[in-house]
Design brief:
single chain, about 90 residues, alpha+beta, Gyrase A, domain 2, 2 helices, 4 strands, about 20% strand
C-alpha cells in the first residue's frame, strides 16, 4: 500500500518536507518528536535550513518497510499539516 507523496522501496519510505523557514522546520521536528516517542518507532531524519528529509525503515524486520513505518509516515504528514504554512508542500521523489 503506497502512501501519497512517499517514495517507497523494499527497504524504506522516504520523503522530504519543505517549510517557509528554518524555524518552521524545527517546529515540525519538535512537534513530531512527541508523536514519534508515543509510537516508539524512530525515523532517520535530517534538517538543512528549511527542509527535513525523512527515511523510515524497521531495523528489527531486517530493514524492511512495515506497518510501523506506514503508521509513522501518516503521523508525520498529519504533523506537517498542523505546522506548515499554507502553500508549502512536501517534496516527493526524494
Amino acid at each position: 500500500m503506497q502512501i501519497l507523496g512517499w517514495e517507497e522501496s523494499p527497504n524504506s519510505l522516504e520523503k522530504e518536507y519543505r517549510f517557509e523557514s528554518f524555524e518552521m522546520a524545527m517546529v515540525f521536528m519538535q512537534q513530531a518528536s512527541v508523536r514519534i516517542s508515543e509510537l516508539n518507532h524512530h525515523p532517520e531524519w535530517s534538517n538543512v535550513y528549511n527542509r527535513v528529509r525523512v527515511r523510515l525503515t524497521t531495523h528489527d524486520a531486517g530493514n524492511a518497510v512495515t506497518n510501523k513505518d506506514r503508521e509513522l509516515a501518516k503521523v508525520l504528514d498529519e504533523v506537517f499539516e498542523e505546522v506548515a504554512p499554507t502553500g508549502i508542500e512536501p517534496i516527493s521523489n526524494v
